[in-house]
Known about the structure:
This protein has 372 residues and is of the alpha/beta class. The chain is built from 14 helices and eight strands. It has helices at residues 48-59, 76-83, 99-102, 109-121, 133-165, 178-186, 191-223, 226-232, 239-249, 258-264, 289-305, 307-320, 322-343, 352-371, and strands spanning 2-5, 16-22, 26-32, 38-45, 64-69, 88-93, 269-274, 277-283. The chain has a six-stranded mixed sheet with strand order 1-4-3-2-5-6. Strands 7-8 form a two-stranded antiparallel ribbon. It starts with a strand and ends with a helix.
Amino acid sequence: MKASMQSKGDESEGMINVGIDIHKRRCQACLKDEKGRMIGEVSFPRDHDGIASFRRLLQNHGEAKIVLESTGNLWVPIYDQLTDNPANRVILANPRKTRIIAEAKIKNDRMDARVLADLVRADLVAESYVPSKEVREQRALLRQRRSFVEDTVAIKNRIHSLLDRHNLQPQYSDLFGKHGREWLCSIELPSTEKTILDVELKQLESLEAGIRTLTEKIAVEAAEEPRVKLLMGFTGIDYYSAMLLLAEIGDIKRFSSPKKLVAYAGLAPGMRSSAGKTVRGHITKEGNKYLRWILIEAAQHASRFDPKLQGFYQRVSARRGRQRAIVGVARKLLVSIYHVLNRNETYHGQRPELLERKIRNLQRIVDSSLQE
């Protein structure tokens, strides 16, 4: 750990203010006292030992107010280790709102850390929500399954493209079912293309095995979460969608109104005001992309089969087009989800027979996983 601890006359008193600029391998920290005087600057590795050394250094100064920029998932181990000390108050800064760093003319690690230390000292940091460790683990599990599914779609598209290059028409409606795969293994292709196809099929099998493992774990956790059944009462939401919604939303009480939750999902329309006129535009898409994705997916089904939303979808679709109507349905779904979670009540548009089918399917997966 490289440190530059500079004396500035009197020793610092009270709480110190710390800004940390995070990178993949190293972090740069700046320590300032309550009057903004420099206490020191420290560069340390972003590994367990490096963070532990920096944590011990902070303990010598008593209470500390620390700000980290939300950079991917790089902040997680630093946040977790520093929050173990009750003398530390750790804040995760929202990078979109910490504009002063992104727009600085002189930009380097030291300057970024100094600016963060000044911002936290002046209480000008736009704070990001930090989910609990349990919620972060759930998010990782659910997002990984989504990533695996996207990878399988990419592989299947490449296989279709390979068949098109050789003008080969599948003999089965389900190309990737049992008989379809047997046909894929039997077709004659040039040596290189045959090797590529074999590798693609092996990758597909491996991904599908991974998806099954993750699906079973998610199902077991979903069966133990009572709020999942509340959300499964919505048309278009199954146990996976419900778990993803719960993980991405976090504590519903942190949203003071449905409008705040809609904005968090990036489903609020953009607005531009000029000369006393307000113009509404497309949705901002500045928010939780996973939450927005699953709501759009659910809205595709709800717009067709939910009696409460069918009429709305048809009216908006006729005036403004299908895509905007789907977004409108997603927004309405999220408002209803807010009230269901906030009041812990059932959805008024719930279809009991559909909910029962979903619960039976969930139980079937749980039973299957327990038998293995």
